[in-house]
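Sequence only, no structure available. Ideas?
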Amino acid sequence: MRQSRTTIDARGLEPPEPFELTMAALESCDASQSVLLLLSREPYPLYRVLERNGYCRETRHRLDGTVEVLIWRETP
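Reply:
I predicted one. Tokens follow.
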């Protein structure tokens, strides 16, 4: 169960800053933590990196156009 969450509001930031902020946050997370990334578009390159590195993600689209990506590492 995720006990704490870091939120990164990257709406309006230019690439690669959202990617870099997300990866830095994930590196400092332990198994009980997650990262919620807020963007104005789908981060397809990030999805591939997350998959290759063993992270899980759930994406949700808000009515205001915001893309929410919740990221966590699955614990065995």
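The helical segments are 17-27, 44-52.
Hope that gets you unstuck.
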